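[Meeting: bench + compute handoff]

Bench side (C.D.) handed over the final construct sequence. Compute side (W.E.) agreed to return the predicted structure before the next meeting so the bench team could plan truncations. Sequence as handed over:
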Amino acid sequence: MQAGGDRELQAKNYLEKHRIMELLNYLTSALLFFRPEKPREYLISILERLRIAKITGVAFPFFMDHSNIVSMFEMMDTSEKGTISFARYREGLKTLGLLNEDEVLKDDGHVITLEKFRSEVCIHPASPQAFARKF
């Protein structure tokens, strides 16, 4: 039984070391935002751009326009109140690759509006390149 536990631990460590779950989360989010006609080709192009960004240091193109930001916010605003909780806000930034696991955001106790969410997404233009360097 020990060998099975070792394999499971090795798999867990591998996924964490190479940030596989973070990458899959990012790829899934991109698919849901852009809904390309050819999803496999789209995913391949994202992976190629990530590889190039990592090798060359050239910024990874991150196209997040107003409608994409609004769509993501609306998905998180399940109560349709026009606000989201701080926890959802933090998860949204992580999903977009705009917040590192080590980064700490201060919860001031206020709910997050679309305007606040949009401003945070827009002030992180270099983050996708940082995201590419993680892999």
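W.E. noted at the follow-up: Residues 2-133 form one domain. C.D. will use this when planning the next construct.
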